[in-house]
Amino acid sequence: MALDYLDFTGDCVVVTGGSSGIGKSCAMALAGRGLAVAITHFHDPDEADEVIGRIHANGGRAIACDADVGDEDDVEALFAAAESAFGPVRLLVNSAGRNMSGTAVQDMSLDHFDRVMRADLYGPFLTCRRFVRGLEGKDNPGGGGRIVNVSSIHEAAPRAGAVDYDSAKGGLAQLTATLALELAPRGIAVNGVAPGMILTPMNQSALDDPKERARRARAIPWGRAGRPEEVAELVGYLLSDRADYITGTTVKIDGALSLKVAQDA
Ligand SMILES: NC(=O)c1ccc[n+]([C@@H]2O[C@H](COP(=O)([O-])OP(=O)(O)OC[C@H]3O[C@@H](n4cnc5c(N)ncnc54)[C@H](O)[C@@H]3O)[C@@H](O)[C@H]2O)c1
């Protein structure tokens, strides 16, 4: 079973973007280890119902909230719902996010840039802030808590046409590192995972078209794209006590794709 070697100290985890892709795999795996899970969906209740239904069918505990992670009120409502249903939230996974647009900078509206920033950078800021506020004082007497931010190898490997996404993920790397430093005295660990190409709806065309999938896999040294369940394994480890001494780092999970930067000149 996924993550079956792990123990968890927290009993409630918030997983943003938990209705789809990597977040969904995290939610399913963590619920399978006995954690109560609060997921977000983005105006897609059917997608969330499917995940919640599967968790409940397996005997797990889960709720879903419609939340824009870039909206302060939505983030407050998400955490209030999780705390009311399951008690203090001591684990957080930030997986919600928007992909790059492929738009050149001269053609990119501020509105568009802002939408990606709000999902991919402001969102983790708001959820991390609310997570930390929720663990102040009496609700966290022994200290502790763990956050995993789902970044991307493109936090450090830029692409033309991705000034929106790559800027947001670059900022997320610094958010992760800075919060790790700030929160270490409180025993709250903050780490990131940086996936390469993972087969989720964010890569829908590769899911749909085996030829495209094979073509893109040839660019990956490991010879294939990753699966969301593999990212969930890593996230689960980083959330667990086994990773106690790991904080302030981002772990790549990319089949060595990011190492191809600056080759073949
Ligand atoms: N799939 C990949 O190849 C890949 C690679 C690197 C990084 N990532 C990162 O992994 C994370 C998860 O992506 P995924 O592959 O599971 O894609 P996905 O599209 O399946 O999941 C992302 C989810 O985030 C939601 N979302 C978008 N904007 C939101 C907002 N403002 N508020 C709340 N939810 C919002 C989407 O509706 C979707 O449900 C993202 O942060 C993405 O950048 C993915």
UniProtKB/TrEMBL annotation:
<dbReference type="GO" id="GO:0016491">
    <property type="term" value="F:oxidoreductase activity"/>
</dbReference>
<dbReference type="InterPro" id="IPR036291">
    <property type="entry name" value="NAD(P)-bd_dom_sf"/>
</dbReference>
<dbReference type="InterPro" id="IPR002347">
    <property type="entry name" value="SDR_fam"/>
</dbReference>
<protein>
    <submittedName>
        <fullName>Glucose 1-dehydrogenase</fullName>
    </submittedName>
</protein>
<keyword id="KW-0560">Oxidoreductase</keyword>
<comment type="similarity">
    <text>Belongs to the short-chain dehydrogenases/reductases (SDR) family.</text>
</comment>
<dbReference type="Pfam" id="PF13561">
    <property type="entry name" value="adh_short_C2"/>
</dbReference>
